[in-house]
Amino acid sequence: MSSQDLHKTDTNQLFDGLNDSEFENDTGFGLLAETSHTQESEEDEAVEFIDQRYAEDDDYRLSGNERLKLEIFRDLRKPCNKREYSQKLKDASTRLGKSVRQVRRDFEKWKLHGPASLIPAPRADKGHPRKNKKYWHERTVKIYKAGNKGKNSLPRHKVVERIETRAYELSKLELKPEISELEKKGLVGEDLDKEIGALIQSREKGEGFRHWKEYGKPPSRRTIERWLKPLEEEKYIAKTSRSPGWHSSKLVLRPKSGRELEIQYSNQVWQVDHTKADILLVDKEGVEISRPFLTTVIDTHSRCIVGFRLGFSAPSAQVVALALRDAFLPKSYGPEYQLRSRWPCYGVPAYLFTDNGSDFKSNHVTEWIADQVGFETEFRSRPSEGGIVERPFRTMSQLLSDVEGFVGANVLERPKNAEARACLTLSELEWLLVGYIVDNYNQKPDSRTQSNPFVATQSRVERWQKDLISPPVLIKERELDICLMKAEERVVKDNGYLRFANLMYKGENLGAYSGHTVILRFDPRDITMVMVYDRNNNREKFLGRAYAMGLEAEKLSLEDVKKASDDSKKRGKGINNVTVLEEAVRRREFLNSKAKKTKSERRKLEQEKFDTLPSWHEEEKPSVVESLPLEEKGSEEPVEKIDYDLMRQELGI
Question: Distance from CA of residue 297 to its chain's centroid?
Answer without folding.
Answer: 8
